[in-house]
Amino acid sequence: MTVCGHVKYKVTCEMTATIPVRMARSALVGTARALLSLRAIDLPPPGAHPRIYVANHVSHADFVALWSVLPKPQRLRTRPVAGADYWQASNLKRWIADQVFRAVLIDRDPAKRQTDPVETVANVLRAGEDVIFFPEGTRNLTDAPLLPLKSGIFHLAHAAPMAEIVPAWILNLDRILPKGSILPVPLNCAVRFGAPLRPDKDESRDAFLIRLAEAMLALSDRRI
Amino acid sequence: MSRFYSPSAFVFYGLFAFLIVATLIARTLIRRGKVGGDTARNLMDRIWAWWVMIGVLALIFTLGATAITVFFALCSVAALREFATITHTRRADHDALAVAFYVVLPLQYLLVWLHVPIFATLLIPVYCFLLLPVVTVFKGEVKDFLTRVSETQWGLMVCVYCVSHIPAILQLDIPGYRYSAFTLVAWLILVVQASDVLQYVWGKSLGRHLLAPRVSPSKTVEGLLGGMLSASLLGMALAGITPFAWWQAGLVALVVTTFGFLGGLIMSAIKRDRGVKDWGTLVQGHGGILDRLDSLVFSAPVFLHILAWGWL
Asked: Which Pfam family, any one, appears in the UniProt record (chain A) (predicted)?
């Protein structure tokens, strides 16, 4: 894939997306924004570096919310990282993942996987695109606000050192669609962003993961 | 085409004329540098939001009673969403909230639209009060139980029950009144919202003594009195389109603006307690929809009762 900077990429993406794909995107973004009264708080203006948006993960709608809340030019070059096992389960899911969100699908099972997931995501960043990454590794179904972060984000940050990590916190989505329920209740939802960060030169894995978790938790104030 | 010559239509013509003047004045003030920066931006945002709100109201008034009922039902959804967002409700309240949004709210407006006042009056204050906590109690989560069920009930009362009294006015049949009840809804909204705006204007220009500094740092005695009295004069001046004599119109306007003010104060106290400045961000420059509806919420039921039971 040859991509020369973000502006050019946006054009290609708009041109190549088929009409059903664009309609599905508009419908999703429109529904998310109308139902959730979704808005971004403190989103840092786009810079020269590709971004890894890292957020808390409490519901299936998380990446839709984070994706929908971004301004359109940023949204079109932002790809959620998701589990291949779930999104390749049916043709419809595969179409949504590949076409609508242009998800970066990774194999979560270390025993069976052929490719290195960190390398897969790093390639996307090297090509100048942004990704949405849930560093907890799985949905948080506990009462704790955040699970201990997996080491994936640390390895990714080293594999793609030009990328900046933007911590984000998705507010109230856990109340809109709590675990075990299928009916969302409309509440005002927002995504709060923090200042971009990177691992320091000699920072250990654990120190970095703790620093990142703290940066994320600092955004979790429910008052919006 | 009579709807374009009705008294409520002329209320809107007056409002649009007023908005044009307000927009011109604001732009002149900004161009001459009398106001600038954030104040100017907020002023233009507010005026623009008024254009949208009055434009939407004018449109739904032209479309008829069903459109008005549907519009206020949607207002209720947005308001309840704002209210529920800042409550203590937790996972165990999810089903009760779902019932509130998807069953109670549509049912209340259906009852209003079908004109079954007895059920519309009892549904939320009695049956939701009795039955909605039942949905929650079987979840077995007892922590803050009273707080949580009370908050849900309050949300329904404020955002659904009270708001539904506005379209309910349309169903009234007032003997000896030559205009349709649309006119009365327009009169109520005009007087109550004018009181809000005038309280802001009087408060900004003459306000000295804070009324309730711990609840609302911007409300002043001067603003309150000036706003309520001038809005009541406006209501009195429009007595011709109401079923009231001029002094009755002034008195009713005073009552609804008083309740409107109290509503704003009570809703401010809730915001203050929950640590938020505005209910939401739906209305540019104004905050959430509840920030705009709070005074109407508390005055609409009283106004309906005055009309329905012929207190004057």
From this structure: Acyltransferase
Domain ranges (residues) in chain A = 5-217
DSSP A104: E
- Give the homologous superfamily in CATH for domain A5-217: Glycerol-3-phosphate (1)-acyltransferase (3.40.1130.10)
pLDDT digits (tens, 9 = 90+) for A168-211: 999 988 888 887 788 889 888 899 999 999 999 889 999 999 99
pTM for the full predicted model: 0.86
Q: Which residues from B are below 8 Å from A37, CB to CB?
A: 78, 81, 280-282
Name every chain A residue with its beta carbon within 8 A of the beta carbon of B101.
185-186
Q: Spell out which chain A residues touch chain B, with contact meaning CB-CB distance below 8 angstroms.
A: 37, 39, 172, 175, 178-179, 181, 183, 185-188, 223-224
What is residue A182's three-state secondary structure? Answer: coil
CB neighbours of B24 closer than 8 A, spacing ≥ 6? none
User: What is the C-alpha to C-alpha distance for residues A190 and A172, in angstroms, rounded to an integer?
Assistant: 7
- 8 A C-beta contact, residue A158 and residue A136: no
B55 alpha carbon, distance to own chain's centre: 17
Q: Is A134 helix (H, G, I), strand (E, B) or coil?
A: coil
Structure tokens at B48: 């623009």
Q: Quote the ipTM score.
A: 0.77
